[in-house]
């Protein structure tokens, strides 16, 4: 969809014809089985527009990349439950000690909190984009053997690494909560490494209530491993880079662009080449009138001007005019509009401009954002647009199996599109069975059954046919072609 | 050779332990540890709990006496102290306790040749702009310690945040 906006050219935008070009070469080189869009968020408060925009971009990008390159795509949401829930000072040394959300609230409550903040939002995005997602707490991620092994791999190189992940003072914050009270020295002033081997490292830490304790990190050990932001990202990206089957795309707010050179330097120390690393996809920053990043924390402290009541929704999205579904539709529409031109995507927006763009979408346009986009060859598109083709055939990818009666499908070919509504979806074990039971004239009125069967065999391999085949019965929803 | 006494001080998380350790490695005469910590542990063991505000006066006096002993123990040449007597002003103000007459008298009697304040290693800010009251307290304590030395008539030398070696070289250049 087109948004009423103008954006200047930039170096990156100038190098791309379409926004999805950013991934074209990486997909061609790696030939991944799947592209995973990874988005991480702290769970320490109601998300504001900037957070939601990044998350929404992950889903819409996943859909666009799937459509553009015919590759399976997913979204992984890392909920950072290691965010500090409480900080107190050691009465002896005055060093800061923190307790994470995970340890303060427990697994069940943290899961409940995360779901209360994000589940409906992600379900709505998943439904609109037909992209599967998984929610992973940091606590779960740090417990995986691959995360721990990657961390262990960094330890022999810590002298070089520490100035990359902490250029100001060289202190790599590694925290192991006290086994008795879960407090951990925030800056690890008294954390010492006692020994490091390939498969095991032993640390010593200090709790101001329970004294000295040891933390043993192995691939399978239970000790909770908490790392500062940059260090955690180095380990996470190295872990993702090691996966030969999946291409990771780190979807991050634009402010991360400045920090990623530190992560790059650190990954270089670990021996990774740039071409092996996950792709970073920075989403537009949301700015105030002064050009500063919109910061809810600074506003709550009175250090940043509060947007007027009319724009309160940018801080608390519940205030958006209309209901939650309207908000999701408008947000998806906003991201789609940004993705239409690389110039629109790789830039920042003031919240005033975002407000204008979100509200410029008519109710009909918003509704259409719920429509799933399906790219199709020109000759079949023309048949659908003319109303002659009312059954579309697809193989049973997991995303295709999500299509349900009543859902809107927008078929797209080159720059034209046509909106349809699903009447029914029928699944068959093979194309032969499908053509036996369906009216082949509704699939293609211009060709005979045998010829059509040969055509689909040219498009879909036997391997893909084995996933099952779908006959999707549709009806035109609007007049003409856009 | 007359004694030459320098205090290394600052609030929490200024990297004092690393700087003291590097000074020791380079052969300087230095305090072996921060006296106040050891006394804190003795108090904690005796009381069976962390110290409360009502314990601070007694604790401050014990720490002051230990600093005086440490001061007098050094007789000749250069020595770096891990905190000094006027640190007491900052800590006592932090807890809302008036400086004791003993502290005022000791500050006047036992003078150091220089005071070196290490700047904090951290800005105490969160990348999400979240400000923790307790972290701000740590920053306030740093400022109170500096103020204590200024009020006691010292002009501290401030050592910027940097590599430990460069901080030590900075200190050496300013002796």
Specify the number of helices of chain A. 20
**Unreliable residue runs of chain A:** none
Q: How do the strands line up in the largest sheet of chain A?
A: 5-2-1-12-13
Question: Can you summarize the main beta sheet of chain A?
Answer: 5 strands, parallel
Using a beta-carbon cutoff below 8 angstroms, give the protein chain pair with the largest interface and the number of residues from each chain: A-B, 25 and 27 residues
Q: Which labels suit this protein?
A:
heterodimer; A: 482 residues; alpha/beta; 5-stranded parallel beta sheet; 5-stranded mixed beta sheet; 20 helices; 38% helix; B: 175 residues; Rossmann fold; 7 helices
Question: Overview of this structure, please?
Answer:
The complex is a heterodimer of chains A (482) and B (175). Chain A has 482 residues and is of the alpha/beta class. Chain A contains 20 helices and 20 strands. Chain A has helices at 11-15, 21-30, 49-69, 101-105, 107-129, 138-142, 145-154, 158-165, 229-241, 260-269, 296-300, 324-339, 342-345, 351-359, 363-368, 378-385, 431-437, 440-443, 449-459, 462-465, and strands at 34-42, 72-80, 84-89, 96-100, 132-137, 174-175, 184-185, 192-196, 200-207, 211-218, 226-227, 246-253, 279-283, 286-287, 349-350, 372-375, 391-395, 408-413, 416-428, 469-476. In chain A, the strands form six sheets. Chain A has a five-stranded parallel sheet, with helices on both faces. A five-stranded mixed sheet of chain A has the order 16-18-19-20-17. In chain A, α5 (107-129) packs across α12 (324-339) and α8 (158-165) runs antiparallel to α10 (260-269). The longest helix of chain A has 23 residues, at 107-129. The mean pLDDT of chain A is 91. Chain B is α/β, with parallel strands linked by helices and 175 residues long. Chain B has helices at 16-25, 35-47, 56-73, 87-94, 101-109, 133-151, 164-173; strands at residues 3-9, 77-82, 114-118, 157-159. A four-stranded parallel sheet of chain B has the order 2-1-3-4, with helices on both faces. In chain B, α6 links the parallel β3 and β4 (157-159). In chain B, α1 packs across α7 (164-173) and α4 crosses α6. Chain B starts with a strand and ends with a helix. The model of chain B has no long low-confidence stretch (mean pLDDT 92). The chains are: A alpha/beta (482), B alpha/beta (175). At the A-B interface, β3 and α11 of A face α2 and α6 of B.
